[in-house]
Design a protein that fits this description.
Blueprint (H helix, E strand, L loop, with lengths): L12 H5 L26 H16 L7 H17 L8 E5 L6 E3 L4 E5 H6 L3 H16 L2 H22 L3 H36 L6 H20 L12 H15 L9 H8 L3 E2 L7 E3 L2 E4 L4 E4 L4 E5 L4 E5 L4 E8 L7 H8 L10 E5 L2 E9 L3 E10 L2 E10 L5 H9 L3 E2 L2 H6 L3 E7 L6 H5 L8 H8 L13 E6 L1
Parallel strand pairs: 1-3
Antiparallel strand pairs: 2-3, 4-16, 5-6, 6-7, 7-15, 8-9, 9-10, 10-14, 11-12, 12-13, 13-14, 16-17
Helix pairs in contact: 3-5, 3-10, 5-7, 5-8, 6-7, 7-9, 8-9
């Protein structure tokens, strides 16, 4: 859960119920007598690109300063650009402080890779495949093409609704436009995959790094969705992972034979050794059943048997069977709004008459209430710490247990975190170790201080198909304090 500026004010019931469990320096010298030519004025496009970059970096938690990783990525990009059809293009790489595996590009030539994606890749060819894919989006003008299609769709809708005065037909046109745009974006992803693999091989990298990384991304998405219990694969605007993997494998076979291109696992692992992993304490971390947000100064502990997940909107939790859920978030509220008014204004369903209560817990003012639905019952609370209001919502299927007792037990753990304790919360890091004879995925994953499926996480981080014996002398990634 990030700062309150990123948290939705309105409580989304669907979020609670569909989630089942289970982010250089400058110097000056005033005494200098050297005359420098005036800096060329920034163009409108360059100024807009700078603003877009600043907004994007802020939205993803800032930029990670990792000289070794940044140098490796820059070297890879330079090789890819020289091997492309447009070697005169200029690209810059930024590593974003997000635990989510993601990468994207702006038309200006800005490339972005999250530390979550760096943790998932296992050699230079895999991360080069991602960068080659994003470079292809820029050189193929995909962003501009999407903008042009969106503009045409919007124009047609306005003409249908305003000029022809036909709102019903305009709605049909909007739906058709959305489907066209989604199909268009899917085609662009596949086109960027194909172009990216060609450049990857041309630059001397192992082109099979592309399907390997796509496989890891697919496993990562599947694991996350299994934790959330929604059974989805990827966004509707992207081709299914299996389709992308299949086509990337075909493109790799056309480009080269297996084992011919460069992978350089040793250099890649050395570059990411020590990289921060998982949640940033400044945005809140999950440690077992506890959630601690160092910057906002708040903590709580989930009931026994619950698993927590920290998202950008809220902290979500659920029991193993999914019959009990919780949501914890923060809301921007008008000055002077009472906690009772917070619950009434943010809870869309009706609150049980007479159930509203106020109390003081751990020195904090609290308001609680009850709401009953056909299948689910809800216990609601609003807690104020300083000027920030937090909401703890617990839900249980009718007849699934003592909702009130579990809710009160959890509410009693909500507390203000003092500065000394907040500073003691440190992020996890990646550590590259050498396996000894007899080491297994089970023994190494047991060393990781993570409570959420450590064995699955270890195999995913290392691109392993299954658990079991490891190769003595081989390097593997683990998570450490």
């Amino acid at each position: 859960m990030n700062g309150t500026r990123r948290i939705k004010i309105g409580l989304t019931l669907g979020l609670l119920l569909t989630t089942a469990g289970l982010a250089g320096c400058s110097t000056s010298n005033s005494a200098s007598t050297i005359s420098l030519p005036p800096t060329a004025p920034r163009t409108v496009a360059e100024s807009q690109a700078d603003r877009d970059h600043a907004k994007l970096v802020e939205a993803f938690g800032g930029e990670i300063r990792s000289p070794a990783a940044h140098q490796l990525l820059t070297d890879i990009v330079n090789r890819l650009v020289q091997a492309s059809d447009r070697p005169s293009e200029t690209f810059q790489v930024t590593i974003l402080n997000s635990p989510v595996a993601n990468a994207f590009a702006l038309p200006s030539g800005r490339l972005y890779v999250t530390r979550g994606l760096l943790a998932l890749a296992n050699d230079t060819s895999e991360i080069a495949a991602v960068l080659s894919h994003e470079i292809a989006h820029v050189t193929l003008r995909h962003a501009s093409q999407r903008n042009e299609l969106q503009a045409r769709s919007s124009l047609i809708t306005r003409v249908t609704e305003n000029v022809l005065n036909n709102a019903a037909e305009a709605a049909v046109v909007r739906d058709q436009s959305r489907m066209t745009l989604a199909s268009f974006s899917r085609a662009q992803e596949l086109e960027a995959d194909q172009a990216g693999v060609k450049v990857l091989a041309r630059a001397g990298f192992d082109p099979f790094g592309a399907p390997r990384l796509l496989t890891a991304l697919g496993r990562s998405a599947t694991n996350a969705d299994a934790g959330r219990g929604n059974g989805t694969e990827l966004g509707s605007t992207h081709p299914a992972t299996s389709e992308r993997i299949s086509q990337a494998q075909q493109a790799a076979r056309r480009a080269s034979a297996p084992g011919i291109g460069e992978a350089d696992k040793a250099r890649y692992l050395a570059a990411i050794d020590g990289l921060a992993y998982g949640d940033d304490p400044a945005d809140g971390v999950v440690r077992g059943r506890a959630f601690i947000h160092a910057r906002l100064g708040v903590s709580f502990e989930a009931p026994i048997g619950f698993t927590l997940e920290n998202t950008s909107q809220a902290v979500l939790g659920a029991s193993v069977d999914g019959a009990r859920r919780l949501l914890f978030d923060a809301a921007e509220t008008p000055n002077g709004q009472s906690l009772e008014e917070v619950l009434r204004s943010t809870w869309s369903d009706s609150i049980e008459p007479g159930s509203m209560e106020t109390a003081t817990i751990n020195g904090l003012p609290v308001a609680t209430a009850l709401s009953r639905g056909k299948e689910w019952n809800f216990r609601l609370s609003a807690i104020r710490i300083g000027t920030t209001t937090y909401r703890l919502i617990m839900a249980a299927k009718a007849g699934s247990g003592d909702l009130d007792g579990t809710f009160r037990q959890t509410l009693a753990t909500v507390r203000h975190v003092q500065a000394d304790e907040a500073r003691s919360v440190q992020p996890f890091h990646l550590k590259v170790i050498t396996a000894r004879d007899g080491d297994t995925a089970e023994t190494l994953s047991a060393r990781m201080p993570v409570s959420e499926r450590p064995l699955e996480r270890f195999t995913l981080l290392n691109g392993l198909d299954r658990s079991g014996p490891l190769k003595g002398g081989e390097s593997y990634k683990i998570v450490v304090d």
